[in-house]
Design a protein that fits this description.
eleven-stranded antiparallel β-sheet; mainly beta; twelve-stranded antiparallel β-sheet; 38 strands; elongated; 9 helices
């Protein structure tokens, strides 16, 4: 069983739909990006043609409501040279529109026809006959101006006949007040009937489908941040869009997120409704005012207006008399389908616009039949329609207990915790992770199942503007500083327990459990061991309180499905001494000998070491310990015109030292080391612009290679140039690999 072909559109484009008439379909589609896993995504594989997705509904002809008001069939028949010409037109022709004209031929050797009109300024025509087996020729006529002319059909043997056609266009214009009923949002409920037609255009009902589209309009009382920036922007007013094809259970829900097209989702951790922007297959975001998801009657891109609609029956119906693209664009918005209606009109009852209709003339000849359709669209909730927005979960009384426990551990930064991982076997608990936390220290000790310490270290606040990472020797109680960070310890990433209590359901007075999909909340409660840091957490999150209301434990079941593995694990975090814990380490007992400090790039920063090896420059950068630590990658750039040297450059950068003097001392010490290693002070320099001045730094030549190093303060240029407390070491003379 065949019918009109349509294709759901997931993509969006300002260049809406190519030209086509007479009900001919257009195959045009773009796929959206892969969306966030927390959203129920609608993938391109799920989207099918209407023929595949619409359910087949059994009806007979008598079950159909009368459509006589749409027929208005014009028919004329004439016999010329033994050939009978019978012309048929399904409805009236309006200025600016296109329509199909059918010519049934009896006694002709071929249905090949050349079409013309007496007045090409009123009407033009082209042949769109699709199958030679049909005895009917089909013309697509385009109305250019109001008036009457004859459409002429000429066969290959010279026989010809014609039909008189009138282009309407001087009717009663639709008033602005009527048009405004649909301008500011409404619900459009569609019943779509498909028909097959014989060569003589006898109609047979095929099937039907339904659709519902809602345009929620912009509310000026809830302006968003883009409005002031784009207050002069010629933008549409649509805030939300919803389209549902009930027979195929497909729903498309979108919202305007600034200037972008977004899809709402409920953040499973914060219990807030957010919107993720929609992207195309190239990762580019779609703009809302350039999408199909806007109200076509209230958008400058679509350019539909009241004066495009005219009545020829004293205001009962208003037919579209504008560009042929108008109905196509409207269908693209209402149905996300590429169809080309031959007529689009409103029905008005007692001063209310109550219905929108589309007529698609028979075309698409297949299996000895033509196929057409009629869309009946009821309009309701005018100016008040709303899409089905996602709502946050409600806050219940028991959530107050959870909030109090989370607030206490979050604000006090004082507790002990033990993280254990169970892979489901007796030998799996081979490591335990012990954390001791107070407001100045985050300490981690890792042991095996017998209690042997495998590692012990953490982060400690040094001053108001610095902190450092350390290793701790449990036997000697010595603290060895590894890396110093020149910024406030408050910026250090403590576990923040920052998930919403509303995600939990109550199991008992002290036990609470989420639904599936909230297990990721475990990462807000502790740094995860490397064993499971790459895991997936889509299960339930369990939280328990002790009798005094303190946080006692959290747990979840994770897996490695994201890595293609079947292994699962249970991760449990048990808490104690919440609000009273003090880290038991003497941070005045610091190892000053330097014996435990990293002595190679590999020890200081494995990531930086691996990057230098990969780039082939490890032998050009002598190592010297920096208390601030190192940025963990090698950067590179093309030759800079401010350099007096030639060629490209590799460079590495330290983290920020605690002061400018500490930074400059490191530069002096690094240069002294280079000279001791046999580097020579060359006459080459590089110049950096600091405000209005040039500052020059000397280059030091490698002892054996034609390569140069320069050691200088790193700088940034975000509108103005300034130096930081970081040190940059730049290498010249080695070819940069930009693969």
């Amino acid at each position: 069983m065949k019918k009109i072909k349509t294709l759901f559109l997931l993509g969006m484009s300002g260049a809406l739909l190519a030209s086509c008439g007479g009900g001919t379909s257009i195959a045009s589609s773009q796929s959206t990006s892969e969306e966030s896993s927390i959203i129920e995504s609608r993938t391109s594989e799920e989207i099918t043609t209407s023929e595949e997705s619409s359910s087949k509904t059994s009806h007979d002809d008598k079950s159909e409501a009368s459509m006589d008001s749409y027929s208005q069939e014009a028919k004329t028949s004439e016999k010329v040279d033994g050939i009978t010409f019978t012309f048929r037109v399904q409805g009236a022709l309006y200025a600016g529109s296109s329509r199909a004209v059918y010519l049934e031929l009896k006694g002709a050797d071929s249905n090949k026809v050349t079409w013309s009109s007496d007045d090409a300024s009123i009407l033009s025509a082209s042949d769109i006959t699709s199958e030679e087996e049909s005895v009917t020729a089909v013309a697509l006529v385009t109305a250019k101006a109001v008036g009457t002319t004859r459409l002429i059909a000429t066969l290959e043997n010279g026989a010809s006949s014609s039909i008189e056609l009138t282009v309407l266009g001087n009717g009663q214009l639709m008033s602005d007040s009527l048009f405004e009923q649909v301008m500011y949002g409404a619900k459009f409920s569609s019943n779509i009937n498909f028909y097959s037609y014989s060569d003589s255009l006898e109609e047979t009902f095929v099937e039907s489908s339904t659709a519902e589209t809602i345009y929620e309009e912009y509310n000026p009382e809830t302006k968003n941040v883009w409005d002031e920036y784009y207050e002069d922007w010629d933008r549409n007013e649509t805030d939300g869009y919803r389209q549902e094809v009930s027979t195929s259970k497909k729903v498309f829900n979108y919202v305007r997120a600034g200037r972008k097209v977004g899809q709402e989702y409920l953040d499973p951790i914060t219990n807030t409704v957010n919107a993720i922007s929609i992207q195309d297959e190239n990762g580019d975001e779609y703009y809302w005012d350039n999408s199909y998801y806007v109200n076509p009657f209230n958008n400058s891109t679509f350019d539909l207006k009241a004066s495009d609609f005219q009545s020829f029956d004293e205001g009962e119906t208003y037919h579209y008399c504008g560009s042929y693209l108008g109905p196509m664009r409207t269908c693209a918005s209402l149905y996300l389908e590429t169809v080309a209606p031959d007529d689009m009109f409103f029905t008005v009852n007692e001063g209310e616009v109550e219905k929108l209709s589309f007529i698609i003339d028979p075309a698409n000849y297949e299996d000895d039949s033509y196929y057409g359709a009629r869309y009946e669209v009821l309009i309701s909730e005018k100016n008040t329609a709303k899409v089905d927005h996602i709502s946050p979960r409600p806050h219940l009384a028991f959530h107050d207990k959870i909030d109090a426990a989370l607030e206490e551990i979050r604000e006090s930064r004082s507790y002990k915790s033990v993280v254990s991982i169970d892979y489901g076997s007796t030998s799996s608990l081979d490591r335990f992770y012990y954390y001791s936390v107070d407001d100045s220290t985050y300490d981690e000790k890792v042991t095996d199942k017998t209690g042997n310490i495998l590692s012990h270290g953490g982060m400690h606040k040094d001053s108001e503007n610095s902190y450092y990472s350390y290793d701790y020797d449990d036997e000697t109680t010595l603290v060895t500083i590894k890396t110093t960070y020149a910024k406030s310890y408050d910026n250090y990433g403590y576990p923040n327990f920052d998930f919403a209590s509303e995600i939990f359901n109550q199991v008992s007075d002290t036990e609470f459990l989420t639904e599936e999909g909230f297990g990721l909340g475990i990462v807000y409660c502790s740094f995860l061991p490397k064993d499971v840091s790459l895991g997936s957490y889509n299960g339930q999150l369990r939280l328990t309180l002790d009798e005094d209301g303190h946080l006692k434990s959290v747990s979840t079941v994770g897996d490695f499905s994201n890595l293609g593995l079947d292994e699962t694990f249970t991760i449990t975090i048990n808490f104690s001494e919440v609000g009273t814990n003090v880290v038991d380490i003497d941070f005045t007992n610091i190892d000053e000998s330097g014996e435990n400090l990293p002595k190679t790039w590999q020890e200081a920063s494995p990531a930086l070491y691996n990057d230098m090896v990969e780039e082939g420059v490890i032998d050009y950068f002598p190592y010297k310990y920096a208390s601030s630590g190192w940025n963990d990658y090698v950067a590179k750039n093309k030759a800079n015109q401010t350099y007096e040297t030639e060629g490209d450059a590799y460079y590495i950068t330290t983290n920020a030292f605690s002061s400018t003097s500490e930074r400059d001392t490191y530069i002096d010490e690094y240069i002294a080391m280079l000279l001791d290693m046999g580097y020579t002070h060359s006459d080459k320099t590089i110049a950096f612009t600091d405000a209005s001045d040039l500052e020059y730094y000397p280059l030091y030549k490698h002892p054996t290679e034609n390569a140069y190093l320069v050691v200088h303060p790193a700088y940034q240029s975000w509108g103005s140039v300034h130096y930081t407390n970081k040190v940059e070491i730049t290498l010249y003379g080695v070819e940069v690999n930009y693969d």
